[in-house]
Specification:
The protein is α/β, with parallel strands linked by helices. The chain has 12 helices and 14 strands. It has 2 domains: 12-239, 3-Layer(aba) Sandwich (Rossmann fold); 267-342, TATA-Binding Protein (2-Layer Sandwich), CATH 3.30.310. 32% of the residues lie in helices and 21% in strands. Helix 2 (21-30) packs across helix 10.
């Protein structure tokens, strides 16, 4: 018997929750949600929404599962690390085991100005599972342009921040934060760490707000900015209802500089000795053939989604769409040289 997203036995406790009811469960079953990033925040959000019975989950991530992810990133195991599985693929398989009735759409790709519009098409809501402001500003522009609610969330060290953005009603992210922080001025998880409890707390708030907007409508989302400290613990709620700015470049002036840019560029990832190279023109690479050719050059592992070549002190990860991540450098020019040397300029 096929599972039912409105099964009164499986979802009995949710249905008995007064703001939800049977109709609320039915609305969850009809909903479609985009989660950007399948790391610490994203994986916890996805697990919660899948267990709640949200009908369609689309999620995008460009990375693979690493050993350092396991202390705080739900859904992943040591097997995923050994097999060098893309986070989106590993998350999809875990979610299907949790709730096979949910349509789980895994996208192994970079979320950028080129890919974002298609990823958000048909989605009722956009949730933040990322770890950098450039992507968050891009999501904010996308949400405003598409008139789609967006829930911002961030976790670092032991503290977290959450804010729902309802285009036309609440401040957008650029109203509250007019300019992105200068590169290098905001610490990263690689520098100051992050603990699992704050991740779960932020993800829980994002998931609760997502369920609330699906069940009760966008008018029910509060214009609030939530700040929390999982270690202290402290919890602060700030009313930002007066924070909408007529001169906001995004929701006020409707200028979408990131979305209307020329597309993604090769770039070092903030705070890490990693460069991401965009796919070159031409057909996608033949990973199996390439793995055989590279066998004598360095340590090679591959699966249907990616190929990993380790030539100390560098590591190159080539994805099935031609995108390449080079570890061990912050210089895009050097990363391109390494890619061209080992993988070929037209991979």
């Amino acid at each position: 018997m096929a599972p039912d997203l409105c099964d009164p036995d499986r979802y009995s406790r949710q249905i008995r929750f007064r703001p939800m009811g049977a109709e609320g469960q039915a609305r969850l079953a009809r909903a479609a949600v985009l989660v950007v990033g399948c790391g610490a925040l994203g994986s916890s959000i996805l697990e919660t929404l899948a267990r709640a019975g949200v009908g369609r989950l689309r999620f995008v991530d460009r990375d693979t599962v690493e050993l350092s992810n396991l202390p705080r990133q739900a859904l992943y195991t040591e097997v995923d690390v050994v097999q060098c599985r893309p986070k989106a693929v590993a998350a999809r398989d875990a979610l299907r085991a949790i709730n096979s009735a949910v349509v789980s759409e895994a996208v192994v790709a970079d979320f950028n100005a080129t890919t974002a519009p298609a990823l958000a098409a048909g989605m009722d809501l956009i949730l933040d599972g990322t770890d950098n402001f450039e992507t968050r500003f891009l999501m904010n522009e996308l949400a405003v342009r598409l008139d789609t609610p967006y829930i911002y969330g961030a976790a670092l060290s032991g503290v977290g921040t959450i804010m729902p953005v309802v285009p036309g009603r609440t401040p957008c992210l650029r109203c509250i934060m007019p300019e992105p922080p200068e590169p290098g001025t905001v610490p990263t998880c690689d520098q100051v760490g992050v603990i699992a409890p704050v991740v779960r707390m932020v993800a829980a708030q994002e998931a609760a707000l997502a369920m609330r907007v699906i069940v009760a409508g966008r008018e029910e989302l509060p214009a609030r900015l939530i700040q929390l400290d999982a270690w202290t613990p402290e919890f602060t709620v700030i009313d930002v209802s007066a924070g909408r700015r007529p001169d906001c470049p995004v929701c006020g002036c409707r200028r979408f500089a990131l979305l209307d840019g020329v597309g993604a560029e090769d770039a070092a990832l903030d705070g890490k000795a990693i460069v991401q190279l965009q796919p070159p023109p031409g057909p996608p690479p033949d990973l199996e053939r390439l793995a055989a050719r590279l066998a004598g050059i360095g340590a090679v592992t591959h699966n249907p989604h990616l190929l990993r070549l380790t030539v100390p002190p560098h590591e190159l990860v080539l994805f099935h769409d031609g995108r390449c991540v080079v570890r061990g450098t912050t210089d895009p020019a050097e990363a391109r040289r390494l890619r061209d040397r080992y993988l070929g300029a037209s991979v």
